[in-house]
Amino acid sequence: MGARAGMNPARRLLLALALFACVIAIGLIQPTGLMAPADRLAMKIVEHLRWFPGATLVTAASEWLDRIGQGGARIWIALIVALFLARASRPRAMLWLIVAVSAMTVINPLMKLVFLAPRPDAIAHLIAISSNSFPSGHAAGAMTLYGAIALLFRNRMVGLFCALMILATGLSRVWLGVHWPSDVIGGWIEGLAWLIALSPLLARRETTT
After folding, report:
1. Rounded to the nearest 5 degrees, what angle is found at the Cα of 201, between the Cα atoms of 196 and 204?
2. pLDDT (tens digit per residue) in 3-13
3. Residue 197's domain spans which residues?
4. 101 φ, ψ to 5°?
5. Which distant-in-sequence residues (6+ apart) come within 8 Å of 26 by Cβ?
6. Residue 52 backbone zone (phi > 0: left; psi -120 to 50: alpha; other: beta)
7. CB-hemisphere CA count at 13 Å for 135?
8. Which residue in 120, 122, 127 sits closest to 62, CA to CA?
9. Are 116 and 124 in contact (CB under 8 A)?
10. pLDDT above 90 for 207
11. DSSP structure string for 46-85
């Protein structure tokens, strides 16, 4: 985050556009099959890991991450964090967080409509889901929510927790069989691009506690 903090708004916007272009590139390449070997290998590894002792705990944790990673749940989490920001007299940060997280619940479905990517068929789905696959909404939403929290609360423990939540949410989508790894990577990049695009709207004085 430190490197981006020193970037002027124009460079941040260019970086955000470049990252969005990466998402589009992944979405266009995915149907060609160039990513299929890596995606399917990862799924086969997951299929074997599901038979290992303790796999049921991973599945339970993944299902929990599925629930709290949905759009409505992410907004509730953002609102709770916003209350702490309001009590700390940081109204700009509070509004920025709510806008960032809420907007992603609209941006990602629109991105999915662009590509209309089907869900993976390599392994059994452990949850019922019928929407399009690319880019992963859970991955994009986790990057947006927890990335924003890490940016607003410059604390090592908070940053570590947020990084773990971003990683765990993305990996859980592959474990559940509902996303290819490339879907998750695309979602992470999408969320990061959105955060960078919005970062000029957050005053420098609001990014420290």
Report:
1. 90
2. 444 678 788 99
3. 2-207
4. -75, -45
5. 35, 134, 135, 182, 185, 186, 189
6. beta
7. 33
8. 127
9. no
10. no
11. HHHHTTSTTHHHHHHHHHHHHHHTSHHHHHHHHHHHHHHH
10: its two tokens? 């124009």
pLDDT digits (tens, 9 = 90+) for 160-177: 999 999 999 999 999 999
| Nearest alpha carbon to residue 66 among 131, 123, 14 | 131
Q: Give me the number of domains the chain comprises.
A: 1
Q: Is this model's pTM higher than 0.85 or not?
A: yes
Residue 33's H or E segment, with its range, is none
Query: Taking Cα atoms as reference points, which of 51, 185, 45 lies closest to residue 59?
Result: 51
Instruction: For residue 183, give the CATH number of its domain.
Output: 1.20.144.10
Residue with tokens 């985050």: 1
pLDDT above 50 (res 1): no
Instruction: Read off the tokens for 55.
Output: 């796999």
The residue type found at 145 is: L
